[in-house]
Specification:
Elements (H helix, E strand, L loop, with lengths): L1 H4 L2 H11 L1 H6 L4 H27 L9 H14 L5 H16 L7 H15 L7 H13 L7
Helix pairs in contact: 2-4, 5-6
C-alpha cells in the first residue's frame, strides 16, 4: 500500500479524490481507478480475514459485527485518512489505550468517544495532521508569517 500511495497510480487516485471531473478532463479513466481501488481494498481485506481466521481457528457471522466495524472506522479517523501510516497509528494507539484504562473498564467507550470528538473537531486530519497543526501554532506564537509572492 505504501508503494501504491507513492507511485503514479497513487498520485492519480489522489487527483481523482480532489476533483474527479478535472482528472477525467485530462484523460484519466476515473471509473477504472475506482474499480481498481475497490479491488485492492477487497484483496487486502480478504487477505487479512484469512490470516485472522487462521489465528482464531473459526469464523462465524458474529465475529465481524457492527461494533467491530465502528472501531475500525474510529481507528481510521483517529489516526488520519489519506496516508498509509494514519490508520496504523490510530489502531496502535487505540489498542494500547484500553490497557491503560483497565481500572476504568466501564468508562472506556466514553474515552473512545471523547477522543474521537476531539480529533474530529480540533484535528480533522487525525493524528498525522498534528505536526502541521503544531507548525501553524508555533508560527502564530512566534509571529512568523509566510511570505506570499
Amino acid at each position: 500500500m505504501y508503494a501504491i500511495e507513492h507511485s503514479r497510480v497513487g498520485l492519480t487516485m489522489q487527483g481523482i479524490k480532489q476533483s474527479e471531473s478535472l482528472s477525467e478532463s485530462v484523460g484519466v479513466n476515473a471509473t477504472w481507478y475506482k474499480v481498481m481501488a475497490f479491488a485492492l481494498g477487497c484483496f487486502f481485506s480478504g487477505l487479512t480475514g484469512g490470516f485472522y481466521a487462521q489465528y482464531i481457528s473459526a469464523i462465524d457471522p458474529t465475529t465481524f459485527g457492527f461494533i467491530f466495524a465502528v472501531y475500525t472506522l474510529i481507528y481510521m479517523v483517529f489516526g488520519g485518512q489519506g496516508k498509509f501510516i494514519g490508520p496504523i497509528l490510530g489502531a496502535f494507539i487505540l489498542t494500547l489505550l484500553p490497557e491503560f484504562l483497565r481500572p476504568l473498564k466501564e468508562f472506556q467507550p466514553y474515552f473512545f468517544a471523547g477522543a474521537l470528538i476531539i480529533i474530529i473537531f480540533f484535528f480533522p486530519k487525525g493524528l498525522i495532521g498534528l505536526p502541521e497543526w503544531f507548525r501553524g501554532v508555533m508560527k502564530t506564537f512566534t509571529g512568523k508569517r509566510e511570505a506570499h509572492a
